[in-house]
Amino acid sequence: MITTINLTKKYNGNTVLNNLNLNIEKGEIFCLLGQNGAGKTTTINLLMGFIKATSGEAQINGYTISPGNTKARKYLAYIPEVVQLYGNLTGIENLDFFSKIAGFKYSKKELVSLLDKVGLQQNAHLNKLSSYSKGMRQKVGIAIALAKNADIIFMDEPISGLDPKATVEFTAICKELAKEGKSIFMATHDIFNAVKVGTKIGIMKEGCLVYTTYTNKINANELQDLYLKTI
Ligand SMILES: Nc1ncnc2c1ncn2[C@@H]1O[C@H](COP(=O)(O)OP(=O)(O)OP(=O)(O)O)[C@@H](O)[C@H]1O
Questions:
Q1: Domain 1-75+152-157+183-231 is classified in which CATH homologous superfamily?
Q2: Counting CB atoms within 10 angstroms of each CB, which of 4, 101, 123, 190 has the fewest?
């Protein structure tokens, strides 16, 4: 689905992403770990086509990802750490608005069913977004990604600031989406949740992907030890 070949980003001659070679398959949940400044957000920015690579390439479904390549962009969705939507619109109005911008028109029933699917409680659908918690905003963000029919959803620090119940709900939603064939790429600092939610883990250090493993081959304590030795 998504492939990178020697993907590299430099700022003023400073390499912040160094020859990234990565494959993410359909139904995979890839969790990228790494210290502050390791290059995780830069990787997401490149894979979303928000910024231009200095060298190398990233492809989704055979299309090169780059700023301005709308063919590649339609397969991609991005959920930032804090989902910024229109505070004076309701959850359902935001979903309707952003779906239309992406070229999709849904009936009220379909919009409700998308919000149900991501677990947004029905009594919140008609409340203004300004009253939503972080976890509720995130659910609307995921619903928008589904409405756009994106194949891969990128998330930057999706778990930070979520309470334990919201984290469990979020994990379940991600697993359900993966079962349906969506791919998820998340940058996270939460080693224990990465093992729970992810199918594959990567550890990044100073712009290099130094380690990848499948979560069925490692437990949380082993990953923590490995992480601390690696970074
Ligand atoms: N626009 C920019 N200009 C110059 N340097 C940048 C720019 N964007 C990022 N960097 C540098 O690239 C490096 C990687 O940053 P990045 O934000 O990708 O790290 P990160 O792993 O996401 O960190 P965090 O966990 O803190 O979010 C850092 O040294 C950062 O200062």
A1: P-loop containing nucleotide triphosphate hydrolases (3.40.50.300)
A2: 123
Of 16, 52, 227, best ligand 1 pocket probe by most atoms within 8 Å of the beta carbon: 16
Phi, psi values for residue 38, rounded to 5°: -70, -25
Pocket test for ligand 1, best of 7, 8, 10, 41 (most atoms within 8 A of CB): 41
Establish whether this prediction's ipTM goes over 0.90.
yes
143-160 tens-digit pLDDT = 999 999 999 999 999 988
Q: What is the pTM of this model?
A: 0.93
What is the mean pLDDT of the segment spanning 120-125?
94
> Tokens 């990802």 correspond to what residue?
65
Quickly tell me which residue has 């979560």 as its tokens: 215
H or E stretch covering 115: helix 108-117
